């Protein structure tokens, strides 16, 4: 058999799969250097191949990206030092890394904080607003909202560990996390049992940027359904000013009067804003 026939025989696939495509099942075996793939140009017997070292020398090594190893260093700092070891944008960056496994997300983290104003505002931003951020997809948005939900659950459980009256600071922290960064007003009702432990936190009404309709009869009805002995009213002022308005004061008095008739106490009405909070009880309004 001629050399040409030997070469053709060596190149003939040994088996085929059902769809008719001929394949080599043993792709790991060494292929003699004399055998060329059909797509490769034939090598003349007079041609002298370059040594392996010379060929390698002409091929530049691929440069590593500037952020190579950055994610691992960030994780190490966080695990060793906790959240205080990272800047806000780094904490957000680490969060986005879990949802976006490739690429440098530091510019995106910085851009989000600049766009929304703070780390807390990014977490509490509405999904439809986050969708408008360039470079942020569904996975990143989900990671951000999961972080917000986790913070709410944690603060709520801490607020429920002790009677509300005895854990006032934890209650305020919970209210800040819950509604402090919302763009529209919401009225939340905290229902308490006889030991002043939190039974439920429910959003009673949602409104505009400066007004929320409230119906005292509905407030008392829900308290009776939950067998609550006391209520704390909480609502937010998106404007940033936690000073009670005349409407806030009048609405609170109506709820207090309706609650008294049913032997339900109204412990307080708290107004939350990004700048701080005000308590009707502390102000002498209840």
Task: Characterise this structure.
The protein has helices at residues 3-11, 52-58, 70-81, 88-99, 106-116, 119-124, 127-130, 138-161, 168-179, 216-225, 246-261; strands at residues 15-16, 22-23, 186-192, 198-206, 230-236, 265-272, 277-279. With 286 residues, it is an alpha+beta fold. The strands form two sheets. A five-stranded mixed beta sheet has the order 4-3-5-6-7, with helices on both faces. 21% of the residues are buried. The model is unreliable at 7-57 (pLDDT under 50).
Topology record:
Elements: H1 3-11, E1 15-16, E2 22-23, H2 52-58, H3 70-81, H4 88-99, H5 106-116, H6 119-124, H7 127-130, H8 138-161, H9 168-179, E3 186-192, E4 198-206, H10 216-225, E5 230-236, H11 246-261, E6 265-272, E7 277-279
Helix pairs in contact: 3-4, 4-5, 4-8, 8-9, 10-11
Strand arrangement in the largest pleated sheet: 4-3-5-6-7
Q: Main sheet, how many strands, which sense, barrel?
A: 5 strands, mixed
The number of helices is 11
Helical content band: 40-55%
DSSP strand count: 7
- Strand % is 5-15%
What order do the SSEs take from the amino end to the carboxyl end, as H and E? HEEHHHHHHHHEEHEHEE
User: How large, in whole angstroms, is the Cα Rg?
Assistant: 33 Å
């Amino acid at each position: 058999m001629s050399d040409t026939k030997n070469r053709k025989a060596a190149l003939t696939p040994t088996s085929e799969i059902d769809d008719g495509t001929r394949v080599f099942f043993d792709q790991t075996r060494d292929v003699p250097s004399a055998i060329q793939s059909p797509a490769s140009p034939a090598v003349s017997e007079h041609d002298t191949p370059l040594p392996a070292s010379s060929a390698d020398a002409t091929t530049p090594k691929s440069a590593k990206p500037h952020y190579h190893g950055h994610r691992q260093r960030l994780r190490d700092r966080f695990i060793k030092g906790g959240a205080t070891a990272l800047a806000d944008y780094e904490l957000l960056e680490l969060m986005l890394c879990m949802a976006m496994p490739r690429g440098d997300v530091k510019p995106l983290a910085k851009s989000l904080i600049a766009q929304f104003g703070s780390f807390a505002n990014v977490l509490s931003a509405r999904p439809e607003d986050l969708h408008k951020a360039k470079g942020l997809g569904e996975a990143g948005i989900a990671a951000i909202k999961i972080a917000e939900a986790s913070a709410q659950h944690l603060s709520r459980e801490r607020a429920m560990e002790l009677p509300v009256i005895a854990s006032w600071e934890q209650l305020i922290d919970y209210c800040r996390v819950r509604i402090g960064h919302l763009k529209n007003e919401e009225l939340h009702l905290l229902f308490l049992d006889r030991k002043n432990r939190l039974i439920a936190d429910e959003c009673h009404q949602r409104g505009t940027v400066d007004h929320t309709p409230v119906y005292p009869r509905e407030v008392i009805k829900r308290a009776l359904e939950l067998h609550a002995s006391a209520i704390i009213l909480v609502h937010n002022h998106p404007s940033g000013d936690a000073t009670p308005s005349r409407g806030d004061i009048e609405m609170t008095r109506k709820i207090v009067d309706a609650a008294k008739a049913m032997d339900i106490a109204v412990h307080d009405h708290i107004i939350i804003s990004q700048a701080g909070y005000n308590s009707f009880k502390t102000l002498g309004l209840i």
